[in-house]
Each structure stands twice: as C-alpha cells, then as structure tokens.
User: Which sequence fits this backbone?
C-alpha cells in the first residue's frame, strides 16, 4: 500500500498555502531547492501534477486541490490532538482563514473575532475581502475555511448559517447645490446588482440612472463624500458625517449575511469556536 511521505506532504501543503516557493521555504526553514525536490517527489508519488504557476502565484490542479483538502484536514486533526494532549487551549497555534465581501469584512467579521484573535494563544488569522462571485471558488478550493456571503447557498455540499442582515440605504452628498439628472450611482463593478435590486424593492424597476464603478465599498463611500455620485450602501458602515444624507424610501431593504463552509470537511475545535463567535457577535455590528 502506498503511503504519503509526511515531509513531502507538508512541503506541498505549505507551497499551496503560501502560493510561493520562497515563502514556503522560509516557513519550513529549508532551501528552495530542497523544497522543490520534495514537491517533485510527491508529484511522482501520486503520479499527477499538483501545482501550476499563474499570474498571481502558485495555483492547484484538480488533483492538487484534492490533496490540499486532505492535507488541510490532517493539519487540523493533528493540531486538535496536540492541544488535547498538552492541555493547551483549543485555539493555540491555530490558523483561521475567512473570505467575505467588503461591506462586512472590516466592520463586522473582523471585530466579531477580536476576543479570539487578541487572545495570548498565537492564533493566526487570514482575511480575504473579495467580490461576491469570487467567494465560493475560494471556499471550494480550500484556500479559506469559511466564506461570508449574501445568500444561503443551495448546494448540498455547503452548510449555510444566517448570521443576520444588513440594512441597505440610499446615500448622497447633501452639500452639493445641484443634483445630476439622471443621477449617477456608484457600484463595485458591472456585475454588482445592488442598486437595481434596491429600486426594484421600492417598486421602481424603471428608475433610470447612470453608473460608475469603484473597487470596494469604502471607495464607493469616499466617492459619495467627494460628490462623484450616489450609492446604495450598508447602513452599519456609515459614520456621522456632515456631508452625507440618507434619502428616505418607503420600503426597508435588507440583505442577509450568511456564513458558509463545506459540510464534509473536518471541523476543528478552533473552527467550531469561530462559528460560535460569529453567531454571537455579528448581529451586534450590523
């Protein structure tokens, strides 16, 4: 029976995690040459190419994704066992990786995990702010443990937990002495349907407006402050601001905030604590 070499598996796992041979070699305290040899050997062991080089670093083949998922589960199980044997906290030396859309990442998800991240147990946290359409591939590839999206995913492989709901409001710069006709609304990109959905919920599907695009929600907020346009934005990220006003509409418009993870992957004790902290704390920030 073929048995995977632990050193080679760890080498592959670290390269896949860091997306860089240089970073992975530093993490493992070995030379890049030795690291490359280990990765080459495990590819020969399994008889498949596992890693591919792309514009944004090292990526995984389909076979590589399967092995990375296996290695990730092994790492999580090992850490749980070591913590149990040594009597250390379940979060000691752990790592959590979360992907979320920009309006909840900085203002909701990160502060919700302050009690864990600021603990003295050397917990490492990696946060990835992405467009909504980028989140599911990130989760399925194993690059993150959890994603936070705006809908319950109708996929039998995915567990979805509704954490709360964002209230979206219409904002504009109230210091401008004239309003543009038709108004210009700021969205993330051409795929962003937030503004359309908001006015559809008001029974105004035929409302005409122009669009400009900004990279993330904070860019949109800055654009409104500078008078570049109006926006539909999450109420919880709006601070008291002399130049902004919320335009009143009849219908309140809310969007769910949903935590998702893959059902058949091993959930470490740390990951279970992450879930509980998010369920408890996220509503207080929305």
Assistant:
């Amino acid at each position: 029976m073929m048995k995977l070499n632990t050193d080679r598996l760890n080498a592959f796992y670290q390269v896949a995690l860091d997306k860089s041979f240089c970073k992975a070699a530093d993490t493992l305290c070995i030379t890049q040459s030795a690291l490359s040899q280990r990765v080459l050997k495990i590819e020969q062991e399994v008889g498949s190419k596992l890693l591919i080089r792309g514009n944004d670093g090292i990526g995984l083949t389909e076979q590589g994704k399967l092995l990375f998922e296996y290695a990730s589960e092994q790492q999580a199980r090992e850490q749980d066992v070591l913590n149990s044997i040594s009597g250390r906290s379940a979060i000691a030396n752990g790592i959590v990786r979360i992907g979320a859309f920009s309006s909840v990442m900085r203002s909701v998800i990160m502060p919700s995990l302050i009690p864990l991240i600021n603990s003295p147990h050397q917990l490492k946290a990696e946060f990835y702010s992405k467009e909504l359409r980028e989140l599911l591939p990130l989760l399925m590839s194993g690059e993150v443990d959890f994603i936070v999206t705006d809908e319950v995913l109708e996929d039998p492989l995915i567990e979805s937990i509704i954490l709360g709901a964002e209230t979206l409001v219409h904002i504009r710069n109230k210091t401008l002495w004239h309003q543009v006709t038709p108004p210009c609304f700021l969205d993330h990109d051409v795929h962003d349907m937030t503004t359309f959905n908001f006015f559809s919920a008001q029974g105004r599907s035929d409302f005409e407006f122009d669009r400009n695009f900004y990279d993330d929600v904070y860019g949109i907020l800055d654009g409104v402050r500078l008078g570049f346009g109006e926006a539909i934005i999450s109420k919880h990220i709006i601070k008291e601001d002399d130049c902004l006003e919320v335009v009143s509409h009849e219908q309140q418009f809310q969007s769910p905030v949903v935590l998702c993870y893959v059902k058949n992957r091993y959930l470490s004790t740390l990951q279970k604590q992450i879930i509980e902290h998010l369920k408890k704390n996220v509503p207080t920030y929305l």
Observations:
- The chain is about 40% helix and 25% strand.
